[in-house]
Design a protein that fits this description.
The complex is a heterodimer of chains A (about 170) and B (about 775).
Chain A lengths: L4 E7 L2 E7 L5 H8 L18 E4 L2 E4 L12 E3 L12 H8 L9 H14 L5 H8 L10 H21 L11
Parallel strand pairs in A: 1-5
Antiparallel strand pairs in A: 1-2, 3-4, 3-5
Helix pairs in contact in A: 2-5, 3-4, 4-5
Chain B lengths: L16 H5 L15 E7 L5 E7 L1 H4 L4 E5 L23 E2 L5 E7 L2 H8 L3 E6 L6 H5 L14 E9 L2 H7 L2 E8 L12 E6 L5 E4 L5 H12 L6 E4 L16 H12 L3 E4 L2 H6 L3 E2 L1 E10 L5 E13 L5 H10 L9 E10 L5 E2 L6 H18 L4 H8 L18 H13 L6 E2 L4 E13 L11 E7 L5 E5 L8 H13 L6 E3 L18 H28 L6 E4 L2 E4 L2 E7 H9 L8 E6 L5 E2 L5 E2 L4 E13 L5 E11 L6 H20 L5 E2 L2 E2 L17 E7 L21 H13 L10 H8 L9
Parallel strand pairs in B: 1-12, 10-11, 13-17, 15-16, 21-22, 30-33
Antiparallel strand pairs in B: 1-5, 2-4, 2-6, 3-5, 7-16, 8-14, 9-10, 9-12, 14-15, 18-19, 19-29, 20-21, 20-26, 23-24, 24-25, 27-28, 29-30, 31-32
Helix pairs in contact in B: 6-7, 9-10, 10-11, 10-17, 13-14, 14-15, 16-17
The chains are: A alpha+beta (about 170), B alpha+beta (about 775).
Chain lengths: ~170, ~775
């Protein structure tokens, strides 16, 4: 039998305890042990960004992160940003901007966009490109990503104006 | 056009985008089944070697390993398309570094991976061939013993009297071009789950573009009947031609599943996607063009030598496209092409967006600029002067029922000239230039007199929503949405009331699949005809229920009403419910098989074989840093004749995606092989375009209302990539006055071309 370590962390707002192999990556724990398959495996070498999750609010390639690095921390996956089945304004913006084709890179890109918009209310084109430069997309040619993040910023702005809330983003991750 | 339609011709959000953006869309690797095992494949490290022995005993005894197989466990069947030349696991010898040698099924990926390292294979390396020209030399090592001269395919296609025409030309030009090996690099690694049902049937889950071809080929490889195989297609994370055809891992998973009695999943690693997937056919192209002083293009001669790699899947068909299609871009009087596809000990090649056509476009559209410049003519004017037009029958017998080539050239050239940046900056270090290239492609592909059609089935549910079944896959390009728009338009129901079902060969009607940019044009037409048929059924039923003649009834926004007395109405849902929950149930189901009105080609490949022909032109502006050789594409104006844009948002997405892939091919993507071994099998060393590299893109949609396609639509998937590399080459020459003839245009090549005096400096 392999020896396991107990990993305790917050996943999408819920406390989770799971036995992991020391060599196991966060993406594999999320996908195989916790059965959340919205986080994708595109290269397992940290180059494509499809496995991006938010670790204490910051986007990371979960294929490069040993699962135990998440111990005591908060992880948000794509399943965690839309409360009660409602689309998050960023998700809605990606759909409307035509930024979704095959959809395989989309969860990771949406999470990076969220990380950016959590920090910057109205990011410039350059800031958007810098934030998303770690994501490969083979379908769209990326131009719709910029449109989507700008549209999302407008949607979130309106949301803030109305409710003063956190944009319907579900649980705070910091 | 916008006003007369309710669902087509309007920007539609992809109907499956919500599943994708929430992570709920399930791709192959997101599926698992009770008892499922994980398969891994042992691949040859040698480009060419005899297998002297395989010892699986250490691997088989590893904890968690349930099966280890070699060719001895597989049916001894060679499969493939034109040249069935591949066993699922190598028999006696391996032919490229990556060739499948053995496979393992284990309880975890980690155990399967570890087992691979415990399989002992004794190889005897053999002399290998790495270049098609060397491979054709008499006495060269043979990749396949039954393929003399390593020839996989030869075409000689002649139209008109090309020798006489060359003799009559004012100017004759000759040039040579080379294209590189590139991978489709879809984001979702290709994979499969195979499971044998208790009744003896095989179920295959795989994100494939062509489920029915897959069913036939998997059955062929296993030596069983196609009807014993079901292919179910989950969400596909991109394909671009690379997922049209099965790979060895499909039947390998089936053999592992049979041996273990459990479902087996194989998903390629990204490294395997590089070393053992099928790359774009790389070709050396000699081109000769005969012209008159006024710019008339008279005749064209081409000699192509293409690297097939170790196994031939669709490569012969790709070579055929490469040999012919560009002859239908201009009004040539004659042409002659001799092309050879040659086996080497390189990674096998097959389809990738453009399917051979893109390679020859690079050569010809570069050539047009070279010749025009030499003659002192404007390349754009030369293109316009020679462009084929609607109503033409081209040199190879294509009947152009719609053709917006001239309009595309005009619009792309005008758009790229607008708002140009300064030609020079930083004291001449930065130089900028513009270039134009155009293209033609198909929307469908009838080989010989074969079927080139598609079938669709539509079924109303009792709540008034419609299920659409097609055999054509959506690989992310938006086919589901286009089908839904077409059905909604034809029926007068809201788009949200149409559900497009996943492809399942047991359930879906027959379809060839998503290739040849045929899905909207051919698959969409089948959906349109099926929707019209079910509309007739619905109106007949409603007529009965409303006691009204069906021809007085119309449907709009999901409501059936009397055209002459609009107050008399019932909803589609009410009619469906009444029609289904009754002893005299109405069918409310239509199944239509549609085959476009083309006759196909004769034995000499002459004839009208595509439902429609697509045309387009790109203008690009580039910036060259003469000190580093770095090229940046700044702007692209991409005009495409799509007949009619059913979903303009989808068309724009195809354009920006095609521009990204085409720019990557031109500037940075390249599989580097050293003595047959891939040197850059990783996304860190095989460079794709990122968001920071993208030019600004102006999509220009040209509509020519094709008389055959649904609502006048033609395809656009592949066309958007095709003109990109030559347009960039033309723009580079405009910027710095050097002509690049070999893809990719790396900084080193450009630096050396711009600084010829430094050529020997390193030596």
């Amino acid at each position: 039998m392999k020896t396991g370590q107990v990993l305790n962390f917050t996943l999408n707002g819920e406390q989770v305890e799971v036995l992991v192999d020391p060599a196991e990556t966060l993406v594999n724990v999320i996908r195989k042990k916790l059965l959340l398959t919205g986080t994708k495996r595109g290269c397992e070498e940290g180059e494509c960004g499809a496995c991006t999750v938010l670790l204490d609010g910051k986007p990371v390639n979960s294929c490069l992160v040993p699962a135990m690095k998440a111990h005591g921390k908060a992880v948000v996956t794509i399943e965690g940003i839309s409360a009660s089945g409602e689309l998050h304004p960023i998700q809605q913006a990606f759909i409307e901007a035509g930024a979704v084709q095959c959809g395989f890179c989309t969860p990771g890109v949406v999470l990076s966009a969220k990380s950016l918009l959590d920090r910057v209310t109205l990011p410039s084109e350059e800031e958007i490109k810098t934030e998303l430069s770690g994501h490969l997309c083979r379908c769209t040619g990326y131009v719709q990503f910029v449109d989507a993040v700008r549209l999302a910023a407008r949607k979130l702005g309106r949301f803030h104006d109305r409710s003063g809330g956190d944009g319907g983003a579900g649980r705070s991750v910091v | 056009m916008q006003t007369k339609h309710s669902a087509v011709g309007r920007d539609a959000d992809f109907i499956d985008a919500a599943e994708k953006v929430t992570g709920r869309a399930r791709y192959l690797d997101d599926l698992s089944f009770p008892g499922m095992l994980h398969g891994k494949i042992l691949r040859s490290p040698y480009p060419h070697a005899r297998i002297k022995g395989i010892d699986i005993s250490r691997a088989a005894s590893l904890a968690g390993v349930k099966a280890v197989i070699t060719s001895a466990d597989c049916p001894g069947i060679r499969f493939g398309l034109d040249n069935p030349d591949v066993y699922m696991l190598a028999v006696d010898k391996v032919r490229y570094a990556g060739d499948e040698v053995a496979a393992v099924a284990a309880v975890s990926e980690e155990a399967a991976e570890e087992a691979l390292s415990l399989i002992d294979v004794e190889y005897e390396p053999l002399p290998a061939v790495y270049h098609p020209a060397e491979a054709m030399v008499p006495g060269a090592p043979l990749v396949h013993e039954d393929k003399p001269g390593n020839i996989a395919k030869i075409y000689e296609i002649v139209r008109g009297n090309v020798d006489e025409d060359f003799a009559s030309c004012d100017c004759v030009f000759e040039e040579e071009f080379g294209t590189s090996l590139v991978q489709p690099c879809y984001l979702e690694p290709f994979g499969v789950i195979a499971d044998w049902e208790p009744n003896g049937r095989l179920t295959i889950w795989t994100g494939i573009q062509s489920a029915f071809h897959a069913r036939a080929e998997i059955a062929k490889a296993l030596g069983i009947d196609p009807s014993s195989v079901t292919v179910k297609v989950p969400y596909i994370g991109g394909g671009f031609g690379g997922k049209i055809w099965i790979r060895n891992f499909h039947p390998i998973a089936a053999v592992l599943a049979r041996k273990t009695g459990r479902p087996v999943k194989i998903v390629l690693s990204r490294e395997e996607e590089f070393i053992a997937s099928r790359a774009r056919v790389a070709a050396g192209i000699k081109l000769k063009l005969g012209m008159m002083r006024d710019g008339t293009m008279v005749c064209k001669e081409a000699e192509i030598i293409a690297d097939n790699g170790a196994y031939s899947w669709a490569a012969p068909k790709i070579l055929l496209n490469m040999s012919m299609r560009t002859d239908c871009l201009y009004r040539f009087r004659s042409s002659r092409t001799v092309s050879r596809l040659v086996y080497t000990n390189h990674v096998p090649t097959s389809g990738f967006r453009g399917y051979g056509n893109a390679q020859m476009h690079f050569a010809l559209e570069s050539m047009v600029d070279i010749c025009a410049r030499k003659m002192g003519l404007d390349p754009v004017e030369v293109r316009l002067k020679n462009a084929v037009r609607s109503g033409d029958t081209t040199l190879h017998g294509w009947k152009l029922r719609s053709c917006g080539l001239s309009e595309c050239i005009d619009k792309a050239a005008a758009a790229i000239k607008e708002g140009r940046l300064p030609g020079e900056e930083a004291g001449g270090r930065i130089r900028r230039g513009v270039g134009v290239a155009c293209m033609t492609h198909v929307s469908g592909n009838r080989g010989g007199d074969n079927f080139d059609g598609s079938s669709a089935m539509v079924r109303f549910q009792e709540d008034g929503r419609l299920l659409v079944y097609s055999g054509e896959s959506d690989m992310g390009q938006g086919a589901r949405t286009v089908f839904a728009q077409i059905a909604a338009e034809a029926l007068g129901i809201p788009l949200s009331d149409v559900i497009v079902m996943p492809v399942d060969t047991d359930v879906s009607p027959f379809g060839y699949g998503s290739y040849s940019s045929r899905v909207t044009t051919v698959g969409g037409k089948a959906v349109l005809l099926a929707a019209r048929q079910v509309r007739d059924q619905l109106l007949k039923l409603a007529g009965k229920l409303m006691n009204e003649s069906p021809d007085r009834l119309e449907i709009r926004d999901g409501v059936i009403f009397d055209r002459l007395d609009p107050g008399r109405r019932m909803t589609v849902a009410e009619a469906c419910r009444a029609g289904i929950r009754t002893r005299q149930a109405a069918e409310l189901t239509a199944y239509v098989t549609y085959d476009p009105p083309t006759e196909g080609t004769d034995s000499d490949y002459y004839g009208d074989y595509s439902s429609a022909y697509n045309y387009g032109a790109h203008g690009v502006e580039v910036e060259v840093d003469t000190e580093t050789g770095q090229v940046r594409v700044l702007r692209v104006a991409a005009a495409h004749d799509v007949g009619f844009a059913i979903n303009p948002k989808g068309v724009r997405g195809q354009i920006s995606g095609g521009v990204a892939q085409g720019t990557g091919w031109a500037l940075c993507e390249n599989l580097v092989l050293k003595e047959g071994v891939l040197q850059n099998p990783s996304l860190s060393s095989y460079i794709l375009m990122t968001i920071k590299d993208m030019p600004s893109i102006k999509p220009i949609i040209v509509e020519t209302d094709d008389p055959v396609g649904p609502y006048g639509a033609k395809g656009v998937g592949e066309p958007t990539l095709i003109p990109v590399p030559p347009a960039i080459a033309n723009a580079i020459e405009d910027a710095v006055g050097v002509r690049l003839r070999d893809l990719p245009f790396t900084p080193e090549k450009i630096f050396r071309a711009v600084n010829p005096q430094l050529k020997e400096a390193g030596k």
